[in-house]
């Protein structure tokens, strides 16, 4: 149990580090390069992040509310159902992530063979901590 908590902490830290140190700064710089002002770029990226968080919260609430079953005073729902819903949400997010990786690899190979090989290698290196997480 302690090892699982340690690995979970490592996974959450790795994913949050990836978001705050890599993905959000890249999204902000792309918005700034697109001609948006500083305030507009931060607002656009921030609203997209909030929309994604709220969308997954709403989907999880709808999925757990409809089939939580009877509860007693000691529990707040069916833990097995919560695990199942989280599994489906993880599957959807992983599918979207893999789809965008495929788009990146295909686009890179359209540029040149060398760029495609480099992009494939970069995505493979990215997938190691991602899948550990």
Automatic annotation (TrEMBL):
The chain crosses the membrane at residues 41-59. It comes from the Eukaryota. InterPro entries: ZIP (IPR003689). GO terms for biological process: intracellular zinc ion homeostasis. This is Zinc transporter. It holds the Pfam family Zip. Belongs to the ZIP transporter (TC 2.A.5) family. KE4/Catsup subfamily. Keywords: Membrane, Transmembrane, Transmembrane helix. The keyword Transmembrane applies. It is a multi-pass membrane protein. Its main location: membrane. The keyword Transmembrane helix applies. GO terms for molecular function: zinc ion transmembrane transporter activity. It is found in: Membrane. One of its GO terms (cellular component) is membrane.
């Amino acid at each position: 149990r302690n090892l699982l908590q340690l690995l979970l902490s490592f996974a959450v830290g790795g994913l949050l580090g990836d978001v705050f140190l890599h993905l959000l700064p890249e999204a902000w710089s792309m918005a700034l390069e697109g001609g948006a002002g500083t305030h507009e770029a931060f607002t656009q990226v921030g609203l997209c992040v909030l929309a994604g968080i709220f969308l997954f919260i709403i989907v999880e609430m709808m999925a757990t509310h409809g089939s939580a079953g009877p509860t007693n005073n000691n529990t707040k729902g069916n833990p097995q159902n919560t695990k199942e819903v989280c599994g489906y949400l993880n599957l959807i997010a992983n599918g979207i992530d893999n789809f965008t990786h495929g788009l990146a690899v295909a686009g890179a190979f359209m540029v040149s063979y060398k760029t495609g090989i480099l992009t494939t290698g970069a995505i493979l290196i990215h997938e190691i901590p991602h899948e550990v997480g």
